[in-house]
Specification:
Helix content is 45%, strand content 7%. The termini are far apart. 0% of the residues are buried. A hairpin with a 2-residue loop joins β1 and β2 (49-50). The protein has one domain (2-59). It has a two-stranded antiparallel sheet. By secondary structure, it is mainly α. It is built from 3 helices and 2 strands, in the order ααββα.
Length: 60
Amino acid sequence: CLGIALLSLALANPVVTFGESEDFLSSLPSANVFILDDSYSMATRAGETSRFQNAVKTLS
């Protein structure tokens, strides 16, 4: 009986999509973590502010 069921399923050519599960997962709350480089090179100036200050401003 199991063989007949599996053969029937294979011949039916089922299509599996994950569209609904992706929508469900995107609606869940999430948290993002950004790690900024605080090394000497980030202290260099790009205009009037340092690269580190520009990164903080971009992320906030």
